[in-house]
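Sample intake sheet
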Amino acid sequence: MDRRITKPATWIKRFTAIILVVVLLSAIGLSQSVQVSIQRQSYAANNLSGAINALMDTTGYLEKSTPERMLELLGASLSPREQMEYAYTMASVHIGREEYAEALNYIDQSLKLYTEKDPGILSELWFKKGCLLTLTDKDDDALFALDFALKIKPDLANAHYVKMQIHVKQGNMAQAVQDVEMYSRLTGGESMTAVQGDLYAAQEIYFEAVTAYDKALMADSENWHALFMRGLSHLQLGNYDLSLKDFSRCIEYGQEMAMSRYYRGVLLLNQGDYVGAEADFDAALSTEKPGYAMMELWFNRGVSRMAQGELESALNDFDESVHRGEAVGESLINSGICLQELGQSKAALERFALAGENGITEERLSYYRGRSFSAMGDYSLAVQAYTRSIEGSFELLESTLQRGTAYYALLADDQAAADFTVCIEQGYATAQALYLRGMVYLRMGRDLESQKDLEAAVAVGDKI
């Protein structure tokens, strides 16, 4: 049986702190000004017709952007401060509508119109600009704006949080960790320790990730995300017992069910608990939208069923795995092995051919083909296949033993004896190799050597 334990190759970054849009909509010290601006809007509307008539004759007016038009219309009746407040109010309206490009235009107008030196207001305007820039996929400009906001107001914690999100998006996890550390330092809490763990895990710094998740769980023993991710980090560190404990606790409390069941199944499969593994994979598959592309549930359940001798069920799982694009080459190999065991060697060869088109190496395929050829009685092709496998050092001793068996069937006694001798000298399948070599010697008329090998085979077999 060919089996592979699937471990995570990619990471889903999940952060549980402030949502960016909520940050954008938060008050920034202009709440009174916003109220004033709303009152002034109705007043300005009464004078709009005259202002429009006057501005219609202004060269280039119709080519100007909407924010510029509106502010020009209101310019005659509003002071620069009031125009800035109006622009800010309009930005807030567009943010509420998720019209971020339009909101950005109004924030830019606010910055142009703001001539006072209040660091709180100025830094928040630059912070808003940074948020809007990243929401419009201008991340480098966003980082510049956020850094400028921090230069004005170094204790602007949320700016570090948004920078962290941008750096994660850009794949700069080391910088993202620094951003989180600054955010945590400024907010004075442990709320971001799980996020720090996620960032360490994304960089494959699993020991530090475990330490961060430990802190998060000390602060909140029901932080299920931290518990699950700690289990995943322990798995990557090879701490399988600790990993199993964390996933089992998630399952006990009904948290992260699909993924916890999947990874516990992987661990049980690795331990040889095929029944328990199959039960976990069944449970994971019954959960709606388990979610991670790296999950190879059908493949691994097939492996657990194959190990229990449930060949037809395993074959169905491997076929479904291929259909879903999970571990396609491995699934084709395993389905071919199932077919071999079910006595369908020709169909198995077809699966192996497909496996070769999906990344499985030739020397590995040759080994499995050799088994099919032997089962079909085509020993010449079996010898060729096993020779290719031996040359590629795949299943070297097993291939040698099987090639010797094929040589024996072809009456090529010298070659058969040589292969069995290699296995005996290497201590591989010793009882079987001694028996087969004894039979070869018997056919060659080497009776004393044959008797010696056959007696040794019995003695070794008794010890086994």
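Comment: Residues 440 and 446 are 9 Å apart (CA to CA). Residues 80-96 form the longest helix (17 residues).
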